[in-house]
Amino acid sequence: MRIGRWVIGIVAGLVLLAVLTVLAVTVFVDPNRYRGQIEAAVTRATGQPFNIEGDLEIAWYPWLAVRMGPSQFGAPGAGGEPLVRWKSARVGARLVPLIRGELIIDRVRLDEPRFVLRRDAAGRGNWEDVFAALKKPPTPPITGPNPPPGPQIAGFEIQDGALTYVDEARGRHFTITDWQLDVGAWRSGATVPVATEFAWEAEHDARDKTPIGVRLSATARVHVSDDANDIDVFELVSTSRVQGGPLPKAGVPVSMRLSRFAARLSPLDIAISEVAARVGDADVTASIQAGESGPGLYVRGPLSVELPSLRRFLPTLGAKVPLPVDKTTIGPMKLASMWEWNNGAVRVSGIDLHLDDTHFTGELSRTSSEDAVWTFALHGDKIDLSRYLEIEKTSKKPFELPLAALRALKMQGELTFDQASVADAEMKDVRMRFELADGAVKSLQ
Q1: Between the CA of residue 103 and those of 98, 177, 187, 191, what are the distances in Å?
Q2: What angle do CA 236, 239, 240 make, to 5 degrees?
Q3: What is the CA radius of gyration of the chain?
Q4: What is the distance between the alpha carbons of residues 231 and 265, in angstroms, rounded to a whole number?
Q5: What is the mean pLDDT of residues 391-395?
Q6: Are 434 and 373 spatial neighbours (Cβ–Cβ below 8 Å)?
Q7: In this structure, are residues 303 and 321 in contact, taking their beta carbons and an 8 Å threshold?
Q8: Which residue of 106, 115, 182, 312 could cross-link 163, Cys pair, CB 3.0 to 4.6 Å?
């Protein structure tokens, strides 16, 4: 019995000693003495200045953790903003595994971070140096009979974040606000659960009172290779609502489900096995392959769209166009095709379109030049043109054609029908050729 009491006493004493040691560290050691060393270490590792403006604090329960006040990382850009600044941050590590040589990090949390991504007029991004530094060959792993396991991170969290992206070369700009991000436990080679939500707003000028914006939430599982060159996303599910611009006040609901997204960053190669989306009451399915094509990029894959009524769908997109008086027209639509974008050139082949009672087949293409020309060839089996001739008057104001857009549009092509009827007239093998340039029909045959 005495031996048992001695063992218990020794263990209790060791535990008390460990607790007193941790308390002594957290109470009597000022972590701000190491502020300069921390800033210098991050700067050496990334090549970017790191400045801790607030105080450092040490906490020991339930993790040995460092809490950081306001800080900023990255050299100020053209707008005077660093790459990222935050209000506070917290990172911790389990003490006992650390003593055994295992690095198990608590959830890393950033409160109110503000990211500023800027691409200058020469096309260089302010984040590229950081990525290049992080991609340096890692330190060779420790070998031996019992090497320590790789680092583990219990998670990463962003609360109330924001991101601004500016592309000075192309004149593009967008912002992300109310950003919440929750990344699950991570360890080398594992698949990580990710959940996020944010509000995205496109660029706009003073005349645009309602810019296009999106409120989105999404979940997925993500795997990133050790060299960060290969990224796999599984079971992506997202819901969003697009608002602003010409859209109705309530906006347009959009949902998406993606089975797998696989990307290799260098050389660029992207494959999406299947994506199913619903935009309003339109069902869209597609598979996508993208990558580098010489000096440019290509994107291609099959696409299908199905609508119960195109007439009802157009207003949900904010399209206010005159429609035929006959309410049975511009109704159910089903489209299947193969499409490709290659360095600005567009090609849609294998078009199989069902609209109302007409079945169309054909192709559509656009040149990649600055003076781009659209070319089409569509063939329909039969059509009753009488149903489409009388147009409804939806507004007291006369309908105004978008002349600027029409003048910029150049299109030529051929539309043919096996059978066509107008009133009591029946026609076969109808062929109509169009040529549109400078906003005017140059020829119609």
Answers
A1: 5, 33, 10, 19
A2: 130
A3: 30
A4: 8
A5: 70
A6: no
A7: no
A8: 115
* Tokens linked to 378: 């569509």
Q: Do the beta carbons of residue 67 and residue 57 sit within 8 Å? A: yes
**pLDDT 10s digits, 360-388:** 999 999 998 777 888 999 999 999 988 88
Does residue 27 carry a pLDDT above 60? Answer: no
SS3 readout for the chain: CHHHHHHHHHHHHHHHHHHHHHHHHHHHCCHHHHHHHHHHHHHHHHCCCEEECCCEEEECCCCEEEEECCEEECCCCCCCCCCEEECEEEEEECHHHHHCCCCEECCEEEECCEEEEEECCCCCECCHHHHHHHCCCCCCCCCCCCCCCCCEECCEEEEEEEEEEEECCCCEEEEEEEEEEEECCEECCCCEEEEEEEEEEECCCCCCCCCCEEEEEEEEEEEECCCCCEEEEEEEEEEEEEECCCCCCCCEEEEEEEEEEEEECCCCEEEEEEEEEEECCEEEEEEEEEEEECCEEEEEEEEEEEECCHHHHHHHCCCCCCCECCCCCCCCEEEEEEEEEECCEEEEEEEEEEECCEEEEEEEEECCCCCCCEEEEEEEEEEECHHHHCECCCCCCCCCCCHHHHHHCCEEEEEEEEEEEECCEEEEEEEEEEEEECCEEEEEC
The pair of three-digit structure tokens given for residue 311, joined into one six-digit string: 């007439």
- Residue 414 CA to residue 437 CA, distance in Å, equals 15
Give residue-wise pLDDT tens across range 121-140: 887 888 887 777 666 655 55
What's the token pair of residue 189? Answer: 């080679």
8 Å CB contact between 295 and 275? no
Whether the CB-CB separation of 121 and 74 falls below 8 Å is answered with: no
Q: Report the candidate in 295, 285, 298 with the shortest Cα–Cα distance to residue 258.
A: 285
Tokens representing 173 are 């700009």
Mean pLDDT for 411-422 is 90
The region, left, alpha or beta by phi > 0 then psi within -120 to 50, assigned to residue 280 is left
For tokens 């030529």, the residue is 412
Residues facing residue 384 across a β-bridge: 421
Cβ-proximal residues to 323 (8 Å cutoff; 6+ apart), any chain: 311, 314, 329, 330, 391, 392, 394
CA distance 196 to 238: 9
What's the one-letter identity of residue 164? Answer: T
What pLDDT, on the 0 to 100 scale, is given for residue 310?
A: 93
Which pLDDT score is estimated for 261? 93
